[in-house]
UniProtKB/TrEMBL annotation:
One Pfam family linked to the record: HTH_3
Domain named HTH cro/C1-type: residues: 20-72
Listed SUPFAM superfamilies: lambda repressor-like DNA-binding domains
InterPro entries: Cro/C1-type_HTH, Lambda_DNA-bd_dom_sf
Compositional bias per record (Basic residues), positions renumbered to this chain: 93-102
Annotated region (Disordered), positions in chain: 88-113
Species for this entry: Pelomonas margarita
Protein name as annotated: Helix-turn-helix domain-containing protein
């Protein structure tokens, strides 16, 4: 099994593609049937299984159609290990991205002479 910690994005995509294909085959479902269940095109399923390339929405639809939604539940869950991390996580949830200072746009500056 691929260790995602040391893998490239393409390697992770390829691994997930293989796992989805294995799940589909284990259920005895053809690509065209999966596409119909997921509400995506057969080409989308083929591309997803071949290269792992897909939109997030299409990936989720295929996962749902295969009955694997429970495996998404723990994806990207913030693991808090200390009180300091809890406080930092809470602050991060309430913060907004800083605004760009006024007058630093990318347009050409105009000056009055």
């Amino acid at each position: 099994m691929l260790d995602f910690s040391f893998a490239t994005a393409d390697e992770i995509a390829q691994e997930l593609a293989g796992r989805l294909k294995a799940a589909r085959l284990a259920q005895g479902v053809q690509q065209s049937e999966l596409a119909l269940r997921a509400g995506v095109s057969a080409g989308t399923v083929k591309a997803l299984e071949k290269s792992g390339q897909s939109t997030v929405t299409s990936l989720i639809r295929v996962v749902q159609a295969l009955g694997l939604t429970q495996h998404l539940q723990q994806a990207f869950v913030l693991e808090v290990r200390s009180i300091a991390q809890m406080e930092q996580a809470q602050r991060a949830q309430r913060q907004r991205a800083p605004r760009k200072p006024k007058g630093t746009g990318t347009g050409a500056a105009t000056s009055k002479a």
